[in-house]
Design goal:
three-stranded parallel β-sheet; elongated; alpha/beta; 321 residues; Alpha-Beta Plaits; 51% helix; four-stranded antiparallel β-sheet; 3 domains; 10 helices
């Protein structure tokens, strides 16, 4: 395993401000201090971060050096990884303590203030998760705890019966949805091509032909039901709701589409901003579909890795993209 090592020095007469700023920057990057050097795993984003930091040091009339190290004498890779996990474990413990303090105040504070404080906790979680390079197990536990708190603030929805859909009846079919696809429809398109029929024909129109499968239209085969968005309905209909990564993906789509505050996931704000940007840039339907499939495939791969979900375990019939 390879590591990036960052070493720097500032002029002895330099004020404390640059030193404090560098220390804070290194902490936000998730770097681990070994004696007088800072260490990150060898990844492109880590190298770029150290390179930017080196420029800051040079602007402060200091010197900086970035090195790639294959092995530390007297320190195994597993021991270094454990140091990174220990640091993130402390971060997650601090976040959990904040969440516990908030949970203890559920009956004492106004709902609006609680929602705002929950948003801050989720943003804090996202910051930690970004530098959790080696998947500290406590991260998933804290996320589950935060989600339980959200459920405590959200009225439980009534049971919604979704009619099952047989996968073999939706092969080699033509699908249709409204033009200008946004989050729910783009997620459904990805789901169709990823888990239902990789060769499906998808058309954009306001009306459907008699033999076409409709989704997320005012009337048709798959649409909103109760408080479920179309993506959630399709996941349940095709028996994919036991897939943990798809469950989280459904929560992200649900919140962007319905904005009812039912779910909080750290990726939601970024996905929402990206999708709105595509509409503002006036992408064509074909471009929206292409970019949407790439976005949701990448997001699903990340969620599957975080939850140890085999990428094709939920639908072995689906072909690779």
């Amino acid at each position: 395993m390879s590591w990036l090592v960052f070493s720097y020095s500032l002029p002895s007469k330099a004020s404390s401000s640059p030193r404090v700023t560098l220390w804070r920057r290194l902490k936000r990057l998730g770097a681990i201090a070994f004696n007088s050097v800072q260490v990150l795993p060898e990844r492109d984003e880590c190298l770029e971060a150290f390179q930017w930091l080196a420029q800051e040091v040079q602007k402060a009339s200091g010197e900086a050096l970035i090195m790639r190290v294959e092995q530390f004498e007297g320190l195994s890779d597993s021991e270094i990884v454990e140091r990174f996990r220990a640091a993130r474990r402390d971060d997650y413990a601090e976040l959990e303590a904040q969440a516990t303090a908030l949970a203890n105040s559920l009956d004492l504070e106004a709902r609006g203030d609680l929602q705002e404080r929950l948003e801050k906790l989720y943003r804090h979680y996202a910051d930690i998760r970004r530098i959790d390079f080696f998947d500290c197990p406590e991260g998933a536990q804290v996320m589950a705890y935060l989600n339980q708190m959200v459920e405590a603030l959200t009225p439980a929805p009534g049971a919604i019966a979704i009619a099952p859909a047989a996968l073999d009846q939706y092969q080699q079919r033509s699908w249709v949805t409204r033009p200008r696809p946004h989050v729910d429809r783009l997620a459904c398109i990805w789901l169709i091509r990823r888990f239902i029929d990789p060769n499906a024909v998808i058309r954009y129109a306001k009306t459907a032909a008699a033999d076409e499968v409709t989704f997320d239209m005012s009337q048709g085969d798959f649409q909103h039901q109760g408080n479920l968005c179309t993506f959630e309905v399709m996941v349940r209909a095709f028996g994919l709701d036991d897939n943990p990564a798809l469950q989280v993906l459904g929560q992200i789509v649900h919140e962007i589409d319905l904005r009812d505050g039912q779910y909080r996931q750290p990726q939601t704000a970024g996905v929402d901003a990206l999708l709105r940007g595509w509409l503002l840039a006036n992408f064509s339907d074909a471009a929206l579909e292409m970019h949407g499939i790439a976005l949701f495939e990448g997001l699903y791969a990340t969620l599957a890795q975080e939850r140890a979900t085999p990428l094709d375990s939920s639908a072995p019939q689906a072909a690779e993209q």
